[in-house]
Amino acid sequence: MPLPIIFIMLTVMIDAMGIGLIMPVMPDLLIQVRGGTLGSAALWGGLLATSFAAMQFLFGPVIGGLSDRFGRRPVLLISLLVMAVDYLVMAVAGTIWLLLIGRVIGGITAATHSTANAYIADISKPEDKAANFGLIGAAFGIGFVLGPMVGGILAEYGTRAPFYAAAALSAANAVFGFFVLKETVTDAIRRPFSIKRANPFGAFKILSKMPTIAPLLVVFFIYQVAFTVYPAIWSYFGKERFDWDPTTIGLSLGLFGLSFALVQGLLIRPALKYFGEQLTVIYGLWLDVLAFALLAVVTSGTLALILIPIAALAGIATPALQGIMSRAVGDDQQGELQGALTSISALAMIISPIAMTTTFAAFTGENAPIYFPGAPFLLALVLLLGAIGLFTRHRAVGVGPD
Question: The CATH number of the domain where 205 resides is what?
Fold first, then answer.
């Protein structure tokens, strides 16, 4: 495999590792810094995630537009370096406000995933794009295997240790990319930077005029809001429902990442070949509905671990949906599309963590109408049913080639 491709996959993997490294320690870290109950820690965790996502929403299309103008290489390398600084800031933060500042800075420069997708789109044939997006998903899954497991182990050395590890990984990958990454944006597809197009609302307006893209953007948004229930509340859910410690939380997230990587790396191509892109999206969404329904009511930690592979199997939907959208736009719009998708994901991350953690706090606190830690999964289930209905309706009238 060419070194630039290895770098792209490592970038996505390290991005996932950075997220996974810190997730097992976040409940304890927030209680340590802020004090209060687990429910209040979950609310602050939601606020930190929302601030990060808000910056991604505002700056995602800017980064995508910059990568269309100046190339993928500088965007990726600068993002990795600033990400390393961000983790160092969080490693020394002694107040909730410094943690918040770190998340704001990190959100502005968190362009690695969208730009990596644009890079893959640049080098892929139209018929190979969905499958190659699956490789990105596999790399993310591998990172999610390693990140939580390493984070859970490092938690034994303190709540700050995972942040230092994440900073070191980001910096090391930036150095590797400096030597091996080749630029894919040529003069033939280079496009002048336009602030009108490089803002989330401008990008949405342009893409929404494409009849094959508009309904898919809505489906993608609803799916992202629902799927974000996992990073938003899993650590708090595991601690509250099953009394898991950081190590067990890390191992559970690692199991999810391993399952996700196997699905994205091994099953997505056969699924696309056998079902086609559109049916793959539908089956993936229904598998998520099943997973959410079961996780909402599960009371056994062992059973929750058994359900994780089912939840990961639903990951076949995302690359298929991305493939449909990528083939619907021109080669000179791949960065713009990926930037818009980053903003959509960020918008979901603005809404979902607050909604999910508030729901979790409401049904686990002293004044809860009923004790129901799985309530956020039920909310995610309802949202997915809406996404399935919308995708099915537009598929019936033709949402793009299969």
Answer: 1.20.1250.20
